[in-house]
Design brief:
The complex is a heterodimer of chains A (176) and B (144). In chain A, 77% of the residues lie in helices and 0% in strands. The termini of chain A are far apart. Among the domains of chain A are: 77 residues, no CATH class; 35 residues. Chain A contains seven helices and no strands. Chain B has one domain. In chain B, helix 2 packs parallel to helix 4. Chain B is elongated and about 55 Å long. The relative contact order of chain B is 0.18. The chains are: A mainly alpha (176), B mainly alpha (144).
């Protein structure tokens, strides 16, 4: 399982690099699709079907919207000149990252291992979720009972975002 | 907005009903099987977006659809807030699971969780539909 996970992550990283480097915008969008669908497979390998369903649907929808926008507007990436500022800022970023990794190196060793978190709260949810909420799907019992505040906030945020989009894209009252 | 060819129209009309009912299943069985309000809502909105993109739509219909989507979205989030406030009105705490737990693995179980799932599903599906409709409408306005 672990090797499959690492192979999927390497594929996703290659997809992201291709998406950044390719000049054709359509192939860049499809490479972004590789990242998203690879993430779906990662969720499936890690046994999280709830997340996998959301990820595959949202990824398909955003990919369709991206491709439609690219087909309507332009296929070529806008050209950016490589000036000296870009090179200097790149070198500076690499040096800063190296210093950061050097300092944080000791901290990474102290982190808990993959798949064994330090928090003991989740064990209680797994053991008592069914009898406390009655929901057979543990994820539903967590997001709509134990942590329902988060879901309420999330739904409200989505509602507010749609209100903002409708207000920005309105036709009435816009001055030409 | 213009539609696509006849083949795409026929296939999309055949598939849209299946996608819609699959989304409904994901929403309603959210407390028993993987899924829930968000995933099912996105699938339901996918069925409508497929129909709009494949078959095309005229101006009148789309503005009516925008009003309906806005109403469904607002009522979905309103239902969720009402469900969460009922616990406060009963003299206990916010977001109380006030209905009976029922038998596990039954469709009528888990108290308010299925109701919340349905409210979230209505809100998310209508929200994504109205985003796409808003994009289609603004493109039409600019072309004039």
């Amino acid at each position: 399982m672990f090797t499959l996970l690492i192979l999927l992550m390497i594929l996703m990283i290659i997809g992201a690099i291709v998406a950044i480097q390719s000049k054709d915008l359509l192939s860049a969008a499809i490479s972004m699709g590789i990242v998203g669908f690879g993430l779906t497979l990662v969720f499936l390998v890690l046994q999280a079907p709830d997340l996998a369903i959301v990820q595959i649907v949202v990824e398909t929808l955003t990919l369709i919207i991206l491709i439609a926008a690219i087909l309507k507007t332009t296929m070529e990436e806008s050209k950016v000149k490589k000036s000296a500022v870009v090179i200097y800022s790149g070198i500076g970023t690499v040096i800063l990252l190296a210093i950061l990794l050097f300092i944080l190196g000791d901290t990474f060793n102290e982190l808990p291992g993959f798949g064994c978190p330090d928090l003991r709260m989740s064990q209680d949810y797994i053991e008592q979720g069914l009898e406390k909420t009655g929901a057979a799907n543990l994820v539903a019992s967590v997001i709509l009972d134990f942590r329902a505040y988060d879901t309420l906030g999330e739904a409200t945020v989505l509602f507010t975002a749609v209100m903002g989009i409708l207000a920005v894209l309105r036709r009435k009252g816009r001055k030409e | 907005m213009k539609g696509m060819t006849e083949i795409v129209k026929t296939v999309s009309k055949l598939l849209a009903g299946l996608i819609f009912f699959y989304g409904m299943y994901i929403v309603v069985f959210g407390h028993l099987t993987p899924g829930g309000g968000f995933a099912g809502g996105v699938i339901i909105s996918g069925a409508f977006i497929l129909l709009i993109v494949a078959n095309g739509i005229d101006d009148e219909k789309i503005s009516r659809g925008k009003e309906k989507a806005g109403f469904l979205e607002s009522s979905g989030i309103f239902l969720f807030w009402i469900i969460s406030t009922i616990g406060l009105c009963m003299g206990t705490y916010f977001l109380l699971n006030f209905l009976g737990k029922g038998k596990p693995l039954n469709i009528f179980s888990a108290g308010t969780i299925p109701l919340c799932n349905i409210a979230i599903g209505a809100e998310v599906s209508a929200a994504l539909c109205s985003i796409v409709i808003a994009f289609i409408l603004v493109k039409k306005g600019d072309n004039k």
